[in-house]
Design a protein that fits this description.
The chain is α/β, with parallel strands linked by helices and about 325 residues long. The chain has two domains: about 5-205, DHBP synthase (Alpha-Beta Complex), CATH 3.90.870.10; about 230-315, Threonylcarbamoyl-AMP synthase, C-terminal domain (Rossmann fold, 3-Layer(aba) Sandwich), CATH 3.40.50. Helix content is about 30%, strand content about 20%. It is built from ten helices and 15 strands. It has helices spanning about 10-15, 40-50, 75-85, 100-105, 120-125, 145-155, 195-200, 235-240, 275-290, 305-315; strands at about 5, 20-25, 30-35, 55-60, 90-95, 110-115, 130, 160, 175-180, 180-185, 205, 230, 245-250, 260-265, 295-300. It has a nine-stranded mixed β-sheet with strand order 2-3-7-4-6-5-9-10-11, sandwiched between helices. Strands 12-15-13-14 form a four-stranded parallel β-sheet, sandwiched between helices. A two-stranded parallel ribbon has the order 1-8. β9 and β10 form a beta hairpin. The model has no long low-confidence stretch (mean pLDDT about 95). It binds threonylcarbamoyladenylate and magnesium ion. Threonylcarbamoyladenylate binds next to β5, β6, β9 and β10.
Length: about 325
């Protein structure tokens, strides 16, 4: 029997019993558990094979709940929360003492967001605790944007994926922290940098590909298909370089119409970056399941959501 279900009451009772449920959000599916249940949180780490040094995001249902999680809210953080929540932005702020260390990997800060998905907002409102939820994929794999992606990864490990359809935005939230009250972007994501800057002015981006970065999820190799992946400005030369191989191609808006290509996915025929972002991970999942030797991915334009997509694609292609 499939673990995919729309039964919200079932999700509630599993979560109240310290079990895990995969939940839909507008960014990607999350693997959720009660933040105050040590059993559930340990289970999140072991199910994902995620190292304990990588902290989790806490999901709440309203801006007002923020003060139950964090002890200080800088002015710009409040403005961002009021402007963009519910939505694809995560704030990293000083934590309250009641937030367990296992959630924050021992840091004195905690990551929080209000997701913009009706099903999960309804779920959160009926629970008496917030949900910790990392993306519902094994460590270093591609994040899931459809319930089927989660079931593919975890059908033997969890009891339920709460079905909320395909994720509208399709890439993880943008993470913003504060150093000396000044905002810093730790992870580019579904809320474009330019949109954030229209509200709080110029923001520093510290989105480096380090071994142990500020947002420890930002490792050099991450979000990876199992198939060798190459990110390039010049698909045609890479087709020549890989001409003996079974090639898959992922492009923004143009078909290469090349006979050496086994499989090709176009993200947005109308060159719409929002549409392309929403389809990106599903396209990578599809290509990764076609027994190809190599996936050639066209570099996206370096602005707006194109920047966020390039960040993930560079990590997906690292070291191949
Ligand atoms: O869109 C999203 O953010 C999704 C959905 C499910 O909400 N969640 C998600 O979670 O992408 P995850 O665990 O895959 O990524 C969380 C990122 C990691 O890179 C982690 O290092 C960072 O947030 N993070 C969490 N707490 C932090 C903290 N206190 N300081 C800095 N970075 C933190
Ligand atoms: Mg993740």
């Amino acid at each position: 029997m499939s673990i995919i279900s729309k039964d919200i009451q079932k999700a509630i009772s599993l979560l109240e019993n310290e079990e895990l449920v995969a939940i839909p959000t507008e960014t990607v599916y999350g693997l959720a558990g009660n933040i105050f249940s040590e059993k559930a949180i340990k289970n999140i780490f072991s199910t994902k094979k995620r190292p304990f040094f990588n902290p989790l995001i806490v999901h709440i249902s309203t801006v007002d709940d923020l003060e139950t999680i964090v002890s200080e809210i800088p002015k710009k953080a409040k403005l961002l929360a009021k402007t963009f929540w519910p939505g694809s932005m995560t704030l990293v702020l000083k934590k309250r003492n009641n937030i367990p260390d296992i959630i924050t990997a021992g840091k004195d800060t905690v990551a929080v967001r209000v997701p913009n998905h009706a099903t999960t907002l309804a779920l959160l409102k009926q629970l008496s605790f917030p949900l910790a939820a990392p993306s519902a994929n094994p460590f270093n794999n591609i994040s899931p944007t459809k319930p089927e992606h989660v079931a593919h990864y975890f059908k033997n490990d969890i009891k339920m994926v709460l079905d909320g359809g395909a994720c509208k935005n399709g890439i993880e939230s943008t993470i913003i922290g504060f150093e000396n009250d000044e905002p810093i972007i730790y992870r580019l994501g579904a809320l474009a940098l330019e949109e954030i800057e229209t509200v709080i002015g110029k923001v520093l981006v510290k989105n480096k590909k380090e071994e142990r970065p500020d947002a420890p999820g930002m490792l050099k190799k991450h979000y990876s298909p199992l198939t060798t992946t190459i990110l390039t400005d010049d698909i045609l030369s890479e087709i020549q370089n890989n001409s003996t191989k079974k090639i898959g191609v992922l492009t923004l808006n143009t078909s290469f119409k090349n006979e050496k290509i086994t499989s090709e996915i176009i993200l947005s025929e109308t060159n719409n970056l929002k549409e392309a972002t929403s389809k990106l991970y599903d396209a990578l999942h599809q290509l990764d399941h076609q027994n190809l030797d190599v996936i050639l991915v066209e570099k996206m334009p370096d602005f707006g959501l194109g920047k966020s997509m390039n960040d993930r694609l560079q990590r997906a292609a690292f070291d191949n």
